[in-house]
Amino acid sequence: MDLRPLRPYTWALALGLLVPASWVLFLLLGEDVVVFLVSGLAIVPLAWFLGLATEEWGKHAGPGVGGLLNATFGNATELIIAIFALAGGLPEVVKASLSGSIIGNVLFVLGLSMLIGGFRHKTQTFSREASGIQVTMLVVAVISLVMPALYVLSTRNPTGLILEEMSLGIAGMLLVAYVLGLLFSLRTHRDIFNPISEVAEEPRWTLRFALVVLVVATGFVAIESELLVGSLASAQRSLGLTKLFIGVIIIAIVGNAAEHGSAVLMAWRNKMELSVAIATTSTTQIALFVAPILVFVSLLTPKVMTLDFEIFELAAIALSAAVFGAVVSDGRSNWYEGALLVIVYAVIAVAFLFHPE
User: Is residue 305 helix, strand or coil?
Assistant: First the structure.
């Protein structure tokens, strides 16, 4: 296989050495905190290649199919990690990581992008209409997640079976909203999300090479995810952290690491439109696609995952959505707004650090 297309990504290949390193450490130490940390770091370059391969495949398939591929596989890393966590009987960790991904994307990723981009460019602009639609989609997701929690709070003796059935019904409606969103953004109103040009970018990889990288990266992500989830309990004991904090902050950051880098890089290049799109699309995809898919996947596991999120998580998501809506309402950003978003994320992270299990 010709590896020349990978030469520009030597940094990711170098970090990829952590993959075999995590295997060796697992054989020597078992499910240890060191394995947790190394496997988590190893997922970062794998997620980067996974996203890159999907992007290159999309270039060969054309703009319409390419957009669908990017939308479908955009959060493949988080989905794979979550599936292994569900298989390990850790639905609460999965829900925490979903919450963390939403909070992290709208506060940390977008905030850091605005901060870094604002250092180089005094004011940056992006589409108010496109970001407004993403805000609406996020609000729909927040409402959908709040209703099961309200059921539990308003019912003296909440029935687990009813909660599961309610979660399945809401998950189905969220998937409908996601599919309609794809139709809206990729077909009927594609001019809103692609306002500048419809000129297709030339692929740098062959289709065969892109597919090989996609398959290999997905396989390695699955292996590393199993190591990460398997050593989570040991990491929790050694680091003195709750599963809630590990899910909301650590696993969420690992799962979104590739997108973090892409969004910040686009902002630095004054492509704020694309930077905001990366952060917001990933957020709504987690809420409207990944979360409901995992509800249905959990039917195959011993413990069904419901959409009854912890109140602390729901409050953090709702507040993040409110701040996000306020910041993107004018279609302009600067470094100070970015700093404020990062500070809000830090405040929430500290609160989760001290929140009991």
Answer: coil
Among the listed residues 102, 138, 124, 97, the one whose alpha carbon sits nearest the alpha carbon of residue 338 = 124
Q: CA 348 to CA 56: how far, in whole Å?
A: 36
pLDDT band at 153 (very low <50, low <70, confident <90, very high): confident
Distance CA 60, CA 213 (A): 15
Tokens of 55: 């992007």
Q: What gap in Å lies between CA 352 and CA 264, rounded to an integer?
A: 25
Angle at which helices 207-230 and 18-29 cross, to 10°: 30
Determine contact, residues 263/275, Cβ cutoff 8 Å: yes
Query: Domain extents for the chain?
Result: 13-354
Q: Report d(CA 305, CA 303) in Å as an integer.
A: 6
Rounded mean pLDDT, 19-31: 88
Pairing status of strand 124-125 against strand 332-333: antiparallel
Answer for the pair 242, 356: CB distance below 8 angstroms, yes or no. yes
User: What span, in angstroms and rounded, lies between the C-alpha atoms of 10 and 172?
Assistant: 42
Of 109, 45, 70, 74, the C-alpha closest to 287 is 74
Helix (H) or strand (E) holding 333: strand 332-333
Q: Is 146 helix (H, G, I), strand (E, B) or coil?
A: helix
Look up tokens 């970001």; give the residue. 131
Tell me which amino acid residue 125 is. T
Which residue, among 327, 321, 217, has the nearest Cα to 272 in the 3D structure? 327
What does pTM read for this prediction? 0.83
CA 103 to CA 111: how far, in whole Å? 11
Per-residue pLDDT tens over the stretch 297-308: 999 888 888 888
- Supply 237's token pair: 């004991």
